[in-house]
Amino acid sequence: MTSPDPGAAPVAAARNTAALDRYRMMRRIRSFEERVGEMFLRGESAGSMLHLSIGEEGVVGVTDAMVEGDSFTTHHRGHGVFLARGADPARMLAEIGGREIGYCRGKGGSMHIADRELGHLGANAIVGGGIPHVVGAGLSYRNHGTGQVSVAFFGDGAMQQGVLYEAMNMAALWRLPVVFCCINNQYGMGTRIDRASASVDFAARAGAFGLAGASADGADVEAVHAAAQDIFAGARAGRPGFIEVSAYRFHGHARMDKSPYRTAEEEAEGRRRDPVANARARLEAEGLADADALDRLDAEAAAEMDRALDAAVQATMPPLPSMFEDVYAPETPTPEPLRRRLARILNA
Amino acid sequence: MTETTYREALRAALEDAMATDPTILLIGEEVGLYGGAYGVTKGLLDRFGPERVIDAPISEPAIVGAAVGAAMTGSRPVAELMYVDFAGLVMDQLGNQAAKSRYMFGGQIAVPMVLRTQGGTGRSAAAQHSQSLEGWFLHTPGLRLAMPATVNDAYHLLRAALVQPDPVVFIEHKGLYTMKGPLDRDRPDADWGRALVRRPGRDLTIVTYSRMLHESLAAAEALAGQGIEAEVVDLRCLNPLDEAVPVASVRRTGRAMVVSEGVMTGGVAAELSARLQELCFDQLEEPILRIAGEDIPIPVSPDLERAAIPSAGLIAEAGLHLMRREVAEWAR
């Protein structure tokens, strides 16, 4: 393709580098989630309430539209989003295993991971629970003129929660720098979206609240990214938006779920919509990377996550007294342990 | 020292705090143009502008949720819940989000917000606008809870709530807004979190808070006429709960009742009497009495409403019983 614009070639090169970076991130997420599954099978995870985002890696198109300083909340299936915003996989796996070096010192786990430094205001295990927090973050950013955007990531299950619409209305009413991102993987636990909602045109719902709305095919990360850039440009200028990333949840709801509510045929069809495989095929087809280079990249991601899992598994569990810390701010007395109170009563 | 109302003291606390701390913002239904359903935020929109005094749509979960997010990102929000009865709408944002964020996230993320609300009976507002739900918040680790009974406490406890590093539920009483009393902006009655002996006495202890302080003081006055000296303890803050002051009092008097407007079963009075029993067992001369709301929804008809909560008369009668005196006519 020829162009009269002399800047076009460097711009194209940068876009190509970014596409490769997005592929690398998606591959890292895939490898990470596979290690979470392995950690569970080895009995090293804290419990089985582990929700894998395999199949949803196209959300990297959205996280790549965020910049340093932007904040976000996620849901119970938020590992991929956090990793894409710069999380250390070893500390994530440590948290998932309830280890002391985990992001939350072994207090939160997979469903309540957060990191203030990276703008992660918290993963939430109440469907829709973290959504209104971005409205408040948007108020802070608007009032303090910081230029930051706050993003709520949630699943299609939350599209049926009332608090989402309260939050959408407020964001639109007050013109806040906020983005709502629905990762529509078709299932709320075992209920397919057409059994939960008569209308599945979610972008239109957002539009009804005065938000800019977009829907992107999550199997095509570049399409997601293009749509997200528009939504984020608007949000940064005080025009809040909504973006739906369609996907298929490759695995069951959590680790104990064998998906008896859907057929093997449906799963096979859904897994053909694989954002990671698609991105790799495209990089090869467009000549941006060859198969050897991509194999090396895949192997690096796998090795990185192996090392992360080793580090997490070897990490120590938190000491028992830490259970009383962080109920309140450190300057206030910690709650009195029951045994100490009993001694006080019986020795009185 | 000035004489003012409970309502004006609360308004002054918000105004003084907002003038000092530019990160404070108010968010709630009718807090701006209308001036607050009970007039507490009157004039603040004019002084501080619509970016800091935010009239919200009728969306209580998102009002509290927005306050949580604002608190996480450098603001100090005061969310107003018009009636504590609406707590049912917001218990996820309050109990699962505000209260637990610091803990779940390993101490990284604080939620320094205040939820201002009001409760209690006295206006024939019926079952969904008259409750005393403080027990719900007491049952939730991570929350702070303050319930001022005096004009000076209305000012100083709210100022103190606005510098707490943790989420505070601040429950005013709708029956106290027009009450007058002394306000000394430079001198709190006591520190945040400390209970106070409001009237000393040697014979029995009445532990109470919020509007029931005034019924208890009236009862103590009536008992004094019969030669019984009741000590009245105002808890002021229910979380952190200052056990030391009521325990010291009951160990001295050996007789105690806990007076609360909330329903008796599973409530604040139950919690307090359990603690007093544990820590004062050897000194107790009589069972600890719970003088609390009847276990019914609040009825609208004025006589029924009054009878649903403790009165000075009932508290005084309970005092006579604790002292084994004759009660002319019980349970009128």
Topology (SSEs and partners):
The complex is a heterodimer of chains A (348) and B (332).
Chain A: H1 8-41, H2 60-63, E1 71-74, H3 79-84, H4 89-96, E2 120-123, H5 131-144, E3 150-155, H6 162-173, E4 178-184, E5 187-188, E6 191-192, H7 193-196, H8 202-208, E7 212-217, H9 221-236, E8 241-246, H10 264-271, H11 275-285, H12 291-314, H13 338-346
Parallel strand pairs in A: 1-2, 1-3, 3-4, 4-8, 7-8
Antiparallel strand pairs in A: 5-6
Helix pairs in contact in A: 1-11, 1-12, 4-12, 5-6
Chain B: E1 2-5, H1 6-20, E2 24-28, H2 44-48, E3 53-55, H3 60-72, E4 76-81, H4 87-98, H5 101-104, E5 114-119, H6 134-138, E6 144-146, H7 151-161, E7 168-173, E8 180-183, E9 196-199, E10 204-208, H8 212-224, E11 230-234, E12 237-239, H9 244-253, E13 256-263, H10 268-280, E14 289-293, H11 302-307, H12 312-322
Parallel strand pairs in B: 2-3, 2-4, 4-5, 5-7, 6-7, 10-11, 10-13, 13-14
Antiparallel strand pairs in B: 1-8, 6-12, 9-11
Helix pairs in contact in B: 1-7, 3-4, 8-12, 9-10
What does this structure look like?
The complex is a heterodimer of chains A (348) and B (332). With 348 residues, chain A is α/β, with parallel strands linked by helices. Chain A has one domain (10-321): Rossmann fold (3-Layer(aba) Sandwich), CATH 3.40.50.970. Chain A is 45% helix and 11% strand. Chain A has helices spanning 8-41, 60-63, 79-84, 89-96, 131-144, 162-173, 193-196, 202-208, 221-236, 264-271, 275-285, 291-314, 338-346, and strands spanning 71-74, 120-123, 150-155, 178-184, 187-188, 191-192, 212-217, 241-246. Chain A has a six-stranded parallel beta sheet with strand order 2-1-3-4-8-7, sandwiched between helices. Chain A has a two-stranded antiparallel sheet with strand order 5-6. In chain A, α5 packs parallel to α6. The longest helix of chain A is centred in the first third of the chain and has 34 residues, at 8-41. The mean pLDDT of chain A is 95. Chain B is an alpha/beta fold. Chain B folds into two domains: 2-183, Thiamin diphosphate (ThDP)-binding fold, Pyr/PP domains (Rossmann fold, 3-Layer(aba) Sandwich), CATH 3.40.50.970; 196-322, Rossmann fold, CATH 3.40.50. Helices cover 36% and strands 20% of the residues of chain B. Chain B contains twelve helices and 14 strands. Chain B has helices at 6-20, 44-48, 60-72, 87-98, 101-104, 134-138, 151-161, 212-224, 244-253, 268-280, 302-307, 312-322, and strands at 2-5, 24-28, 53-55, 76-81, 114-119, 144-146, 168-173, 180-183, 196-199, 204-208, 230-234, 237-239, 256-263, 289-293. In chain B, strands 3-2-4-5-7-6-12 form a seven-stranded mixed beta sheet, sandwiched between helices. In chain B, strands 9-11-10-13-14 form a five-stranded mixed beta sheet, sandwiched between helices. A two-stranded antiparallel sheet of chain B has the order 1-8. In chain B, α3 (60-72) packs parallel to α4. Chain B is globular, with a radius of gyration of 20 Å. Chain B starts with a strand and ends in a 10-residue tail after the last helix. The relative contact order of chain B is 0.12. The mean pLDDT of chain B is 96. Chains A and B meet through α5 and α6 of A and α3, α4 and α5 of B.
